[in-house]
């Protein structure tokens, strides 16, 4: 038709729909760096702009990360998305159970849990006297991300972009089985920057998670470094950068 076009790719790998359109559009915008580095023809018309963020994320990004000392409260946020909450309900309580009792006293735990799993998960935390808030959904997730010291999560495009924008350390468990392995690649962006630990679901066991949480809880300086590394991946000006690209392609 001769009308210029742009596609935006939020994941670290180009999805099938965007790949189908990639040779037909004037420009490709990506949220994450390096998406098309191995394809010179497409890379030449690719710009990394980031993921445009809603105001609540931008407000959360203004909250400075302050790592807790080894005796202060440790705020742990566990989220999984609609498909991922079940594995978190299956693994996280067992991991918390394996922590040293001294760490139980420090924990302030917020966990997204499916309605049908709340009772069994709560039973574990109640038995351990863990301060925990469980819910199927949190409407104020950006503020909860900002107040957390460590996040355990899936690694969808939106989650990774928000962890980068706000700058919070994370343990990421990519959703397995997707054709493009997009969540594995997304988590890799933060992991390569040292802003996250990436654990494949096959290795995501109560023992492994307990070991990682224990190690991070004992090293405040490592949490601080991870927060800064995650923040280095984030882009707060993505909306403006995308708008600028649109204007450029449109010749305005």
- State which percent range the strand residues make up: 5-15%
Biggest beta-sheet profile:
6 strands, parallel
**Percent helix among the residues?**
40-55%
CATH topology of the largest domain: Rossmann fold
- Report the strand count: 9
How far is the first residue's CA from the last residue's CA? 19 Å
Report the CATH C-level class of the largest domain: Alpha Beta
Architecture of the largest domain in CATH? 3-Layer(aba) Sandwich
Q: What is the 3D form? A: elongated
The CATH superfamily name of the largest domain is Glycogen Phosphorylase B
List keywords for this structure.
alpha/beta; single chain; six-stranded parallel sheet; Rossmann fold; 252 residues; 47% helix; elongated; three-stranded parallel sheet; 2 domains
């Amino acid at each position: 038709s001769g009308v210029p076009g742009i596609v935006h790719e939020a994941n670290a790998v180009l999805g099938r729909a965007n790949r189908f359109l990639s040779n037909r559009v004037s420009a490709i915008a990506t949220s994450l760096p390096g998406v098309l580095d191995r394809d010179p023809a497409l890379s030449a018309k690719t710009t990394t702009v980031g993921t445009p963020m809603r105001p609540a994320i931008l407000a959360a990004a203004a909250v400075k990360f302050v790592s807790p000392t080894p005796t202060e409260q440790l705020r742990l946020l566990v989220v999984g998305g609609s498909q991922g909450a079940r594995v978190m309900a299956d693994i996280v309580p067992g991991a918390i159970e394996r922590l040293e009792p001294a760490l139980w006293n420090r924990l302030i735990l917020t966990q997204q849990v499916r309605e049908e799993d709340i009772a069994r998960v709560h039973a574990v935390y109640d038995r351990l006297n863990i301060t925990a808030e469980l819910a199927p959904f949190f409407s104020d997730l950006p503020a909860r991300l900002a107040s957390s010291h460590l996040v355990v999560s899936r690694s969808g495009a939106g989650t990774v972009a928000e962890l980068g924008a706000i700058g919070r350390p994370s343990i990421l468990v990519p959703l397995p089985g997707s054709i493009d392995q997009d969540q594995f690649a997304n988590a890799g962006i933060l992991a390569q920057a040292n802003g996250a630990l990436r654990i494949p679901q096959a290795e995501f066991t109560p023992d492994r998670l307990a070991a990682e949480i224990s190690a991070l809880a004992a090293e405040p300086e490592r949490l601080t470094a991870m927060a800064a590394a995650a923040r280095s991946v984030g882009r707060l000006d993505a909306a403006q950068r995308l708008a600028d690209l649109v204007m450029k392609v449109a010749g305005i």
